[in-house]
């Protein structure tokens, strides 16, 4: 366990590094509002460094020179060439990891250090979201709004679900057909593959969405407890989020104070702004997601099976492959509409990849059929 002086030195070094990086980010940031936020963060970290300097002197040790370490200098070098977003991403992660670093340190009791660290984590997370990918948050929000308006996410999920069913079951049907041209054997295998795949997809989707909902509920409970325990610190965090989104400090504080007047509205706003959770939705219904996944997978999976209800032998295989090829190409076209890529190129790519998988499994099935059949 480190001694007190070792802990003081580690805290001092962390604060010096953070202040240095915030100063660099402030100098590089073209948006004066965001630059001002970085400068205030730097000033706070410098005050924290002064506190640990005093602790070191009181312990009889001379504080180290206020000089950033090699890692911080390398990050600064990268930021000067790639932009301040590099620092935003790294510092957001660092602040989130260290947001509770002073909670159990006795020297921090009665000071603003614990609240400052939590506020910095929230602030940096908001700035990271605003600047991710080098795109300003307001522009990104407009783009995301436009995508939601045309149902891009839902359409993409539908295409992927149907495509999974089509590719996997076409491969299964071709593999069984390669081993035996019996329509009955292929039909049973195809329907079994459809049901197994659809049930597996539905269960996986249910577990994923339900786990996400439970995590969100736990995060909301934690946020409620923090609001009850530290209402002023939570209001400051909300003000910092608003400030990171472009409000002036006075506007941000007024907005946070107004929201704080209604405890439930305050909780909902904090959950939305800080955690990115819609408390009314919690990520959607697990049962609805499971049912949708089952249905979409089944739509794709039934396509290569249908010809075997009416045909037998080589004609059934050819018809199945033709139906699958048409489905693959149409799904590729739909994908192109979602992604904005070339329609013909994306459709052809989807077709070729699906046919390669079908051909490979047909060949393997033929070899296995020959080997087993003697």
Strand residue percentage: under 5%
How many helices? The count is 15
The rounded Rg comes to: 29 Å
- Overall structural class, as computed from helix and strand content, comes to mainly alpha
Number of strands: 0
Can you give the helix content as a percent range? over 70%
* Average pLDDT reading: 75
Word description of this protein:
The chain is mainly alpha-helical and 374 residues long. It contains 15 helices and no strands. Residues 132-154 have low confidence and may be disordered.
Keywords:
374 residues; 3 domains; mainly alpha; Ferritin; 81% helix; single chain
Q: What is the topology?
A:
Elements: H1 4-28, H2 32-58, H3 70-82, H4 85-97, H5 113-131, H6 137-149, H7 152-179, H8 183-229, H9 231-244, H10 249-260, H11 263-275, H12 286-302, H13 307-310, H14 313-339, H15 343-373
Structure summarized in a few sentences:
With about 375 residues, the protein is mainly α.
């Amino acid at each position: 366990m480190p001694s007190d002086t070792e802990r003081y030195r580690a805290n001092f070094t962390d604060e010096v590094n953070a202040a240095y990086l915030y100063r660099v980010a402030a100098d590089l940031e073209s948006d004066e509002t965001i630059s001002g936020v970085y400068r205030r963060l730097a000033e706070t970290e410098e005050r924290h460094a002064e506190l640990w300097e005093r602790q070191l002197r009181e312990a009889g040790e001379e504080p180290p020179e206020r000089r950033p370490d090699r890692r911080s200098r390398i990050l600064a070098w990268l930021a000067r060439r790639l932009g301040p977003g590099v620092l935003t991403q790294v510092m957001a992660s660092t602040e989130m990891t260290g947001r509770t670093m002073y909670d159990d340190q006795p020297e921090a009791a009665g000071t603003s250090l614990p609240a400052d660290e939590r506020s910095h984590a929230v602030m940096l997370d908001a700035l990271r979201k605003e600047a991710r990918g080098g795109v300003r948050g307001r522009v990104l929000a407009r783009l995301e709004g436009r995508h939601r308006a045309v149902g891009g996410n839902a359409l993409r999920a539908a295409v992927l679900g149907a495509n999974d069913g089509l590719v996997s079951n076409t491969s299964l049907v071709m593999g069984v057909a390669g081993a035996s041209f019996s329509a009955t054997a292929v039909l049973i295998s195809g329907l079994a593959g459809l049901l197994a795949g659809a049930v597996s997809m539905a269960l996986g989707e249910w577990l994923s969405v339900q786990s996400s909902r439970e995590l969100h509920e736990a995060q909301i409970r934690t946020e409620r407890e923090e609001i009850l325990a530290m209402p002023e610190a939570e209001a400051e965090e909300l003000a910092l989020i608003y400030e990171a989104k472009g409000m002036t400090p006075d506007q941000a504080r007024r907005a946070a104070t107004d929201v704080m007047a209604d405890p439930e509205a305050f909780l909902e706003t904090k959950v939305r702004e800080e955690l990115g959770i819609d408390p009314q939705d919690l990520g959607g219904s697990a049962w609805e997601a499971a049912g949708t996944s089952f249905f979409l997978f089944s739509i794709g999976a039934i396509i290569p099976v249908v010809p075997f209800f009416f045909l037998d032998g080589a004609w059934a295989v050819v018809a199945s492959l033709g139906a699958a090829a048409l489905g693959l190409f149409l799904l590729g076209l739909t994908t192109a509409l979602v992604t904005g890529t070339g329609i013909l190129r994306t459709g052809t790519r989807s077709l070729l990849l699906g046919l390669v998988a079908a051909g490979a499994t047909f060949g393997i099935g033929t070899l296995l059929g020959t080997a087993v059949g003697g």
